[in-house]
Amino acid sequence: MQRRKFLKNAALAGAGVAATTLAAPAIAQRRITWRMATTWPRNFPGLGVGAQRLADRITAMSDGRLTVQVYSAGELVPALGVFDAVIEGSAEMSHGAAYYWQNKSRATSFFTGVPYGMTSRELAAWIRYMGGQEIWDEVYDQFGVKGFLSGDTGTQAGGWFRKELTGLADVRGLNFRTPGLGGQVWQKLGATVVNMAGGEIYQALQSGALDAAEFVGPYNDLALGFHQICKDYYFPSFIEPGLATELVVNKSKFAELPNDLQQIVEFACQAEYDQVASDFYANDPIALKTLVEQHGVRVHQFPDEILEAGAVAAKEIFTELREGGDALTKKTTEHYLQSLNVLRTRTETVDQAFLAARQKFFHMT
User: Fold this and answer.
1) In degrees rounded to 5, what are phi and psi of residue 162?
2) Residue 331 to residues 197, 253, 314, 316, 324: CA-CA distances in angstroms?
3) What's the CATH number of domain 30-155+242-281, 3.30.43.10, 3.40.190.170, 2.60.120.260, 3.40.50.920?
4) What is the pTM of this model?
5) φ/ψ (deg, to 5) at 106
6) Could you read off the pLDDT of 28-41 as tens digits, one per residue?
7) Burial of 104 (0-12, 13-18, 19+ CB in 10 A)
């Protein structure tokens, strides 16, 4: 009995020595903690909550082997500094929107929301099945990072204005917060365009630095309080028909992950893309009802003059990108437009026709 006990203790001791010497680095490698810097306020409806849920999903799916710690806007770096944080290594991940980085490459805007471009379903189809991810990888290879679709707001609201828009004349001279290629469209229509993080918009409206602003839609906009300053709210956005958020990862660090952890990150992003879409679809109409009935918000559609001028401006921008951009931006623009022309046939022949029929013939209470 004593001999067996001795041998057992000796074996345990030996195992302990091995664990603290030879196997210690391996154990450390199996437990990884990454920082996710986001552009959103903490617990922000839809977007901030989605970023936290994505981090929690990755942590849970990996059983803690890859633990993701979330830093909301300003906690680790400024809201619009999260992409650089991944490039420079102060964070391993960021959660934001690709068109925020168009100062680095105009091609980035195609992976968020494009004027008169893809709906969210079309965008996911392009990325997942038509070579869009490969194009995105080429664009982000320049910066040593990799992007994944991580959330979907659906078609956004067109923006908040201090007074009703009757035509193009009312747009000219407005200080308007709106980003990406859509911001360039509004510039062509005569607005002075400013890009800023969502958490900064209210103060800029309140101070008068902004005359108008668009961010996402009722779910977010109600939380941000834009209705306290502006009462005229426009739908739908013609510049962001299917906005996607992104998870960006440091490419070299991602390559060092075991294959199963890489797949967990990828599939968790896919799940969250759909989860965020459902969140917005469920809560946008509830929030809009609150804005109208409790806060006196007036809902409008853009005048045709603005919609038509926006389409003309969008075509001009795409032509500029095709003819005058760098080689990769040209390639991205061409690939996106070719894919859009394929995908829209399905949307317009099937989805749009069904929605028109439902609107015309089917109503129940």
Assistant:
1) -75, -20
2) 29, 27, 17, 17, 12
3) 3.40.190.170
4) 0.89
5) -65, -20
6) 457 899 999 999 99
7) middle
